[in-house]
Design goal:
Distance between the termini: 36 Å
Strand content: 5-15%
Helix content: 40-55%
Shape: globular
Largest sheet: 2 strands, parallel
Number of helices: 5
């Protein structure tokens, strides 16, 4: 699912003329915020936006919800702290059908949506600065 979102996001960014797209892979959703922090600390705002893509499938316990909540809160804090738009597309799904509908659909892919949001937020922030 994430690979499909990533392909869609990269295609959208490159079609819009993005100067560079850096991809960093992590082993799970919970590890995303620490990488976001590291990227955000690299120099003087080296990125116009950071896109976080991930899929969490709910299981029999509440673990998935805890992971989703922790990632959401941490990413929100990070964008305020660093002043960089962080697009949150770490998605919590009840089942694979939901994931397929939002990640594998060619007409509606959350990767495209994430890239469009990143581009628009980069423009907004540039205008504010």
């Amino acid at each position: 699912y994430v690979n499909s979102m990533l392909r869609a996001a990269k295609a959208e960014l490159l079609a819009a003329g993005a100067e560079a797209v850096k991809v960093v892979r992590v082993p799970g959703a919970y590890e995303i915020p620490v990488v976001v922090g590291e990227l955000a600390r690299e120099g003087d705002r080296p990125y116009a936006a950071i896109i976080c893509l991930g899929v969490i499938l709910r299981g029999a316990t509440t673990h998935a919800q805890h992971i989703g909540d922790a990632v959401s809160l941490t990413l929100a804090d990070a964008q305020l702290h660093y002043g960089i738009p962080i697009v949150h597309e770490v998605l919590l799904f009840e089942n694979e059908d939901q994931a397929k509908a939002r990640c594998l659909n060619k007409d509606f892919n959350r990767g495209n949506e994430a890239a469009r949001t990143a581009l628009e937020m980069a423009r907004v922030m540039k205008g504010l600065r």
